[in-house]
Sequence to fold (1288 residues):
Amino acid sequence: MNTFGRIFKISIFGESHGKSVGVTIDGCPPGIDLRENDFLDDLARRKSGAKGTTPRKEKDLPEIISGVFNDKSTGAPITILFKNENIRSKDYSQLKNLPRPGHADFVAFKKYKGFSDYRGGGHFSARLTLALVAAGVVAKKITEPIIIHANILEVGGNKDVIKAVDIALEKQESIGGIVDCTATNIPLGLGEPFFDSVESVISHLVFSIPAIKAIEFGAGFLAAKMHGSEHNDEIIDESGKTKTNNAGGINGGITNGNDIYFKVAVKPTSSISLAQQTINLQTGKPEKLEIKGRHDACIALRVPVILEAVTAIALADFMLVK
Amino acid sequence: MNTFGRIFKISIFGESHGKSVGVTIDGCPPGIDLRENDFLDDLARRKSGAKGTTPRKEKDLPEIISGVFNDKSTGAPITILFKNENIRSKDYSQLKNLPRPGHADFVAFKKYKGFSDYRGGGHFSARLTLALVAAGVVAKKITEPIIIHANILEVGGNKDVIKAVDIALEKQESIGGIVDCTATNIPLGLGEPFFDSVESVISHLVFSIPAIKAIEFGAGFLAAKMHGSEHNDEIIDESGKTKTNNAGGINGGITNGNDIYFKVAVKPTSSISLAQQTINLQTGKPEKLEIKGRHDACIALRVPVILEAVTAIALADFMLVK
Amino acid sequence: MNTFGRIFKISIFGESHGKSVGVTIDGCPPGIDLRENDFLDDLARRKSGAKGTTPRKEKDLPEIISGVFNDKSTGAPITILFKNENIRSKDYSQLKNLPRPGHADFVAFKKYKGFSDYRGGGHFSARLTLALVAAGVVAKKITEPIIIHANILEVGGNKDVIKAVDIALEKQESIGGIVDCTATNIPLGLGEPFFDSVESVISHLVFSIPAIKAIEFGAGFLAAKMHGSEHNDEIIDESGKTKTNNAGGINGGITNGNDIYFKVAVKPTSSISLAQQTINLQTGKPEKLEIKGRHDACIALRVPVILEAVTAIALADFMLVK
Amino acid sequence: MNTFGRIFKISIFGESHGKSVGVTIDGCPPGIDLRENDFLDDLARRKSGAKGTTPRKEKDLPEIISGVFNDKSTGAPITILFKNENIRSKDYSQLKNLPRPGHADFVAFKKYKGFSDYRGGGHFSARLTLALVAAGVVAKKITEPIIIHANILEVGGNKDVIKAVDIALEKQESIGGIVDCTATNIPLGLGEPFFDSVESVISHLVFSIPAIKAIEFGAGFLAAKMHGSEHNDEIIDESGKTKTNNAGGINGGITNGNDIYFKVAVKPTSSISLAQQTINLQTGKPEKLEIKGRHDACIALRVPVILEAVTAIALADFMLVK
Fold:
């Protein structure tokens, strides 16, 4: 479903080429300072415009339509809308019957029996991450003094991000990347032993971000190659501070007061200009597809602020449950 | 919370050294053939006894106490209990004040204000995975003809599993491992674009299994180093069959009809016999800890059947929602 | 929370004097015919304008901003907005510190620590029922061929509704009423024995409608005075048709295929022009309050279409779960 | 589903003539004093034995199988079992094909496709209310210092309860009744304006109790006949105390600090010894049915403690959410 959370509950809606995308945040405590300006920094970080991101330009101005009065949250649901303005749907008309490999086009057509909005990926569009970022801005205010920071570690296997994007653009290719995320000042005791472990809830949200295909907490896959004596984080003081942080700040599903740390893999953008093989949904016959629409060469570039947002959303819910 | 699922809903309960562990399965359709014998194979696969697994011996006989009548599910909640019989709680009395590094002891003590059952890890014990395996047996019946199979790929970085365990035991060490899972005969269209993506729900459940610290779907972390033209899976026929399966059978959060494929990292067992540094919860002072209780050298050996179980649970819910 | 439902899930938001009120409907199947015109009949039935209803005039035009493409639902969340246009907030400035007896003003002020939007009742306003009616229109399409019809039985204890309202207006008073609701063509087997009994879910939604204070199914309170032999509905054919319908179409929480029938009590509108005693929230002192804003003399007049809507919402969810 | 609650979450399971009935309580805070003895008083109040209640005798001894350690809740899920011992299933064999009018037999047979456990009403049995009462005992401890008290107001339309039952028994009839419930020392601000109004949540749980067919809060149905000036409760001091309590302690879905007050109607027990008309499920033909099993003449006699229990469950959840 398009709703997530137990107390801090978010619902997202909208399509790439519909009227708006938006989010409703239910369960935000009253009295939180909230103005439209507060959203601009994070929205700008998500925005396209850098090399390697789509040339589609949207103002991305948030409109708060409920739940805020005199610049403070009221305790009622907060709905935030983003109008879609710079729409060039005809770029996508060729795609109606030609599902893009790697995209959700094919499954959307089948699952929704031909009724899904195919323009620009419809409801599957990365444009929906606007809603996540907006909810993240609210969540970050609730989770203070926690600080959440995400970083691009590499794109296309290359630590020189700018160079890697240039090369990809030259080849008419796309590339993926690895992004990490650290949350500091974490209270001890968030999360539950089963089903709502911190890893469970963060990964649930992280895999709602389009293009994420892997996540590892702390030492992650490397842990599988370590000995217990190496991997165990020695507890060095009463607050629970550990010498190492192979656990990524989480034991038994519960925060131990050390930093939460995790990494994600972002796949290369599915839309590329190179010709690809697909199937025509009307004729059932194979066909070559060259994608002409605007798209990101490296979607990983936009991921950090979205990753921070979903981490903040997860932590806000844990803190309000606690 | 200890409840998961929308239609096929499971609730687990119990402690390592309490009376029983168990599971309630709500939302199982009526008329499913279900006898206590049906559980034995998967329970045996999970059981300790192999080299590298704890010498604690439990019969692990399931007792179905509700929801089944004349060997068929009735549609009412199914509760299955496992008695704890071979309990040696005094092994753990030394641990009351000495939280084991890498374990949940410290966070459990703090989160539950000193009231948690510390014996054998209490509710955090891997013994709770009995409940997951039992629910998985029911789920597998519902998800027929899907076939789910999990495999140990390596332990301690070594593909020769037996040898790696022998070496670890000799060193009084523990080791982790990597396990993969494949689900075939998957119907197209399971899952939701946001929040309940197939990756979201599977990872949510997977991170409820103690000791799992990472998951990757399809090409996973490798995807971050690939070009779009390599990573995109070409659609080769009308059913959606793709030439490669870098997506792990999931596009935009939704099954595309190809095999679901993912890998997880299992950390080395936290309990080791070697001396480790910790803090005394009463005195607040550092202390050396040598763990004497029974424990697994390589918990990854037991993971495959549990991984299959949670995958079946996730798929059963998706299929009943659909 | 402001979200309800398992598969057909609705979230409502907005305030009386904010920018908009609205609803997001998640879980609507694809391919349902849906145009803005479809909403007008039910919205008109809810609208003010009749004698006894508030003179506040709003166009109440629904704007579908997501989830519909080419006049069909896509399967993605449907968000519908209603702009607030005819706002006279200064009518309410006197009320900032003077909670109206019978209203939520006092509890809203306390619960939300003074941050709630007090204008026109804010999020507690009956204007939010617009969102319920809109969701009901969608739900009615899903529940076809079920027919749901609600009726005013009496207002102010009087079956002559027009006359009763005239008398109340003359006295500067308000009056309540009794409304019943019948749903026909009900499939057998909706609902669950515990917690999600049909009575549980319908009553849950019904008590979300402002001003409803009682509900009875079938014979209701009268059942308490009957003998078993009178109350039991004899089963007269294989389809489960019964001779009488004292059960209101529900046995053991589950629809039995006969009509669902229930009645609700609507309290008199709390806002009246007569002077009333209250307490000043700033000074803590008692004060007389004469309410000058626009308000309904008999809110029960608007209840039928809202009651139909929530019944349709409940049934749509049951049918999609089934 | 058989699970209810947001933070204080209960799941019930079991059948009348299966091995056990039970409940799992998730979300109980750690450190609550809890022994098996604590349950005995409320369980005794629910028990059969009085005139007018079934002669089936069960010990109804609670067995706590998880979540309690050293007589304190641990924070982990608490599961409580009640063994079924005094089972006379052959009393019910005649009923296999003859659904009792007023009972769930017919809908259970149809909904669960013939697989439901028909013995003693199976999962629909009033025996499941044992689970509710047990959960209520835990909830009452959490909601201290709230005091909840339910009372039989009348049975069969008669305030002389003993006499009314005698008359009914003589006639081989059953009778219903009216029970009220008052909760005092209520904190202001519990509940939500929509969907989780206090009335919504209490009524949701109340209609999970078998045989309840109506509920009214405060003045209830009488409110429909009152004027606003009569019905509005004047606020007389800063704490929100009101002169009257027509609202039943709830405004806009939220507790106002005054007593919560509601009444319910209990229908006459469906099982009666008099011959009744029904349909044979195998032959589809009409048949006369005389019910011989043990049953209550007046189920309302057992309702007070169950009503208190569900009220406590609702309030515990509201308090933990808050």
Notes: The domain at 3-321 of chain B is CATH 3.60.150.10 (Chorismate synthase, AroC fold). Chain B has one domain: 3-321.
